[in-house]
Backbone:
């Protein structure tokens, strides 16, 4: 039985490595599940070990990664699931294509200074990138194109995880996706 009338939407998290995409998306997903909503998470680290494990980090491969994810997000969204994707997704034009394709789409920009991302360095990747051990690393040796007008702007170097989470839920409510 459905507890809620639920209209699907994709929350598309984008931002630099260590900017907080996974952390906020996980927390929001938890909150939504607790409230009885159908939720699916598509996270870069997991998807790149499964659906797109054949791909690397050239522009071509990054774009193909996002195209496949977009396909899955579209199917889930039209079946009225809340989809939370967390991919760096550095290219604006490809994010805009995902928006067009998926339709019900809220872009969530986890804005965070490069200094703070490098300080967090959750997986030690910035260190390796600076040492030249990882090529094509976003923020260091590969571009990141900031969203121009995201539906949700999180400043994760100024807010707590709780505050960022609350902002996302508030926007979902505001847009009529939550009761
Ligand atoms: N407001 C905030 N929002 C999200 N993450 C935060 C925030 N403040 C601190 N953090 C921390 O920053 C880190 C972000 O890492 P992660 O979510 O893995 O980044 P990404 O998925 O973007 O690479 C986590 O350790 C998280 O706890
Ligand atoms: Mg992540």
Residues:
């Amino acid at each position: 039985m459905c507890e809620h009338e639920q209209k699907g939407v994709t929350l598309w998290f984008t931002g630099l490595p260590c900017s907080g995409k996974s952390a906020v998306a996980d927390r929001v997903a938890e909150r939504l599940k607790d409230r009885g909503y159908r939720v699916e998470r598509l996270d870069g680290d997991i998807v790149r070990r499964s659906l797109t494990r054949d791909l690397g980090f050239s522009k071509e491969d990054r774009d193909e990664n996002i195209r496949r994810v977009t396909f899955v997000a579209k199917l889930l969204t039209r079946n009225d699931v809340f989809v939370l994707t967390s991919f760096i997704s550095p290219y604006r034009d490809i994010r805009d294509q995902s928006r067009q394709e998926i339709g019900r789409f809220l872009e969530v920009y986890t804005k965070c200074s490069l200094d703070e991302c490098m300080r967090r360095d959750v997986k030690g990747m910035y260190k390796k990138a600076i040492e030249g051990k990882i090529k094509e690393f976003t923020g260091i040796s590969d571009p990141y194109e900031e969203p121009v007008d995201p539906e949700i702007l999180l400043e994760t170097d100024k807010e707590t995880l709780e505050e960022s989470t609350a902002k996302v839920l508030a926007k979902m409510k505001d847009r009529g996706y939550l009761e």
